[in-house]
Automatic annotation (TrEMBL):
Keyword Iron attributed: yes
Protein name: Oxidoreductase2OG-Fe(II) oxygenase family
Taxonomic lineage from the root: Eukaryota, Fungi, Dikarya, Ascomycota, Pezizomycotina
Recorded family membership: Belongs to the iron/ascorbate-dependent oxidoreductase family.
BP-aspect Gene Ontology terms: small molecule biosynthetic process
Length: 351
């Protein structure tokens, strides 16, 4: 998470583990439409599908760091309720992913079961786009804090998307207009927590390999364990790289929906969470993700204009509504028809 005191309270990230060196992009520079920062951010979204967003030196960034601290407090309060209480708010997959997910509900890549507890809170519930849902008490008490975190995260993602619009050469505001807070969507705040597992191997998987299905994800964590499989690498243990959490920074990653919209120019990378490296594996791990999904009314079809490649002969536009598309993809993954893998990152074809 956010601020350095959280990092100081925990064992350090070890120096001797393989790390993916993703660029650290200053949010202040992106706000100022700094050209070099926008280009680096765009290139990172194409090459890695991930970058670090440095929130220092920006008022909006500082506010979001404070909001994220409150979400970390909320994680502690929520999971302290215990799984028996939280089961009353259990999620109902595949129809409804909001609510509590206990450990052991998902298959991991090694054929075992996941070790991550999650509680997912839907945007519409929090901003009032639909009738409020009854959540665990810890969440009900902090509705206002959650709304602030959501609105501020959303504004930061929208600012990033504006720079992507420019780099893609499409009309300003295009990407963010497809995932507004004003319309219903499956956008959510996800609270994640895993307990240390001293009895298990260092490489034990906490949350299996996946790509995020939505448009973009903004993530705060303090303890390592998040890993990315860099594009072009076979999915074997030695090829995965850690993303090192940094104080004052959020981790941003591109989701599958943006890959669709950009005709595969941007990349959504395969990532997972394994047991935290070194001494960090001895403490509980918390993270908060803001997972942006397109509005229910948005289209999944490829955007037109700029450097986005037009559909080739024989290629059909995606016409399914966003919810059907997401349900179809989840079903393919659950049934094993589609192995989750890195998508997009295609070369730019000069017209
Ligand atoms: O906990 C993390 O660091 C990553 C979580 C994640 O990838 C997700 O919730 O989609
Ligand atoms: Fe993810």
């Amino acid at each position: 998470m956010p601020n350095s005191h959280y990092f100081d309270q925990n064992p350090p990230f070890p120096e001797d583990v393989p790390v993916l060196e993703i660029p650290r992009i200053s949010f202040q520079q992106l706000q100022n439409a700094n050209h070099a920062s926008s280009v680096s951010m765009f290139e990172a979204c194409r090459e890695y599908g991930f970058f670090l967003l440095d929130l220092n030196h920006s008022d909006e960034g500082a506010t979001l760091l404070q909001d994220a601290e409150k979400m970390f407090e909320l994680i502690t309060e929520t999971f302290a309720l215990g799984s028996e209480t939280l089961e009353k708010y259990a999620y109902d997959p595949p129809r409804d992913l909001t609510g509590y997910k206990a450990t052991g509900k998902l298959k991991t890549d090694d054929g075992k079961l996941d070790l991550m507890e999650m509680y997912t809170i839907n945007q519409d519930d929090i901003v009032g786009n639909r009738q409020a849902r009854k959540n665990a008490d810890s969440i009900e008490i902090r509705r206002n804090d959650i709304e602030q975190f959501m609105r501020h995260s959303h504004a930061i993602v929208a600012a990033v998307q504006s720079r992507l619009d420019e780099q893609l050469g499409i009309r300003s505001g295009t990407l963010s207009s497809l995932n507004t807070l004003e319309e219903t969507s499956d956008t959510s705040v996800r609270l994640l927590r895993s307990q240390p597992t001293p009895e298990l191997q260092d490489s034990s998987i906490t949350l299996g390999g996946h790509t995020d299905i939505g448009t973009m994800t903004l993530l705060f964590n303090v303890i390592g364990g998040l890993q990315v499989l860099p594009a072009g690498n076979e999915n074997v243990l030695g090829n995965w790289r850690y993303i090192r959490p940094r104080p004052g920074c959020a981790i941003i990653n591109v989701g599958d929906t943006t890959v669709e919209w950009t005709g595969g120019l941007l990349r959504s990378s395969l990532h997972r969470v394994i047991r935290a490296p070194g001494e960090q594996g001895t403490v509980p791990r918390q993270s908060v993700a803001y997972l942006v999904r397109p509005c229910h009314s948005a289209s999944m079809s490829r955007l037109r204009g700029g450097i986005i490649p037009p559909l080739k002969e024989g290629e059909a536009d995606e016409t399914r509504p966003v919810s059907d598309w997401a349900a179809w993809r989840s079903k393919q993954i659950i049934s094993g028809e589609l192995k989750p893998q890195t998508r997009g990152g295609n070369p730019i074809v000069q017209g």
